[in-house]
Prior knowledge:
The chain has about 260 residues and is mainly beta. The protein has one domain: Sandwich (Jelly Rolls), CATH 2.60.120.430. The chain is built from four helices and 14 strands. It has helices at about 1-10, 175-180, 235-240, 240-255, and strands at about 20, 25, 40, 50-55, 55-65, 70-75, 85-90, 110-115, 125-135, 140-145, 150-160, 165-170, 190-195, 205-215. The strands form two sheets. Strands 1, 2, 4, 5, 7, 12 and 14 form a seven-stranded antiparallel sheet that branches. The protein has a seven-stranded mixed sheet with strand order 3-6-13-8-9-11-10. A hairpin with a 2-residue loop joins strand 4 (about 50-55) and strand 5. The chain is globular.
Amino acid sequence: MAVLALALALGVLAPDPAAAQGSVIRLGIGPGWERRWSETQLDARSTAYALVERDGRWALRARADRSASALWRRVGVEPDEGDRLRWRWRVSQALPDNRHDRREGGDDYAARVFVIFDAPPFSPGARALCYVWASLEEPGSVYRNPYIEDVVTIVLQAGDRRADTWVTEERDFPADYRSAFGSDPDVLTAVAVMTDTDDTGGRALAWFSDIVLIRAGPKPALPGAAIGPPSSRSGSWPSRLAPRNRRRQRYVRRHKGG
């Protein structure tokens, strides 16, 4: 505890409130994170998220146990050419029992980072890029989510070769959006993180840290949509996932002999 207090005093573990600093927008992983991030539950069981100190930095720890829920942070900016999202993530291991990353029944990942566009997070009309730490798919693979066609999955890491180490990612997300959807994004509404094992019925452990939006252009945050407390509007992706939940129930009964 004394070491942690000293690190805070020296700025090694700065609380990192959500704030624009020139061309950099930090998304606020630090003390008080609960006031800035919202959770959307996507299954009967929620993934457990907690702020922890790991290797001298604040991180969100995600612990999934047959569960699925996402943490999201409202942003509200017009993306510009060359904008980038940078983050660090770490997993204890890829999901050992997932043999079908692309299919229904295998849509679970040790770690995901969503970049969400054009509508409130996890609502009808929202498009998303979903950067994942996959089980078997090769890094560089790109494919539609098997349940929601407006979500495009991009594999950045896979397997256990880099497990239990911090990995830094940086993505030109406007370019990724154009490749995925064939047009330019209008509004970057939110960034989300998730660890989920609801389809495969297993467990997973991951950490997310240092999530930063790097602005290349001069466009400010949109009026009324600048970074601030999370919106009170509840997400409605769960209603879109009702068919998925029914298929999952059949999948679980079939594999558990029920």
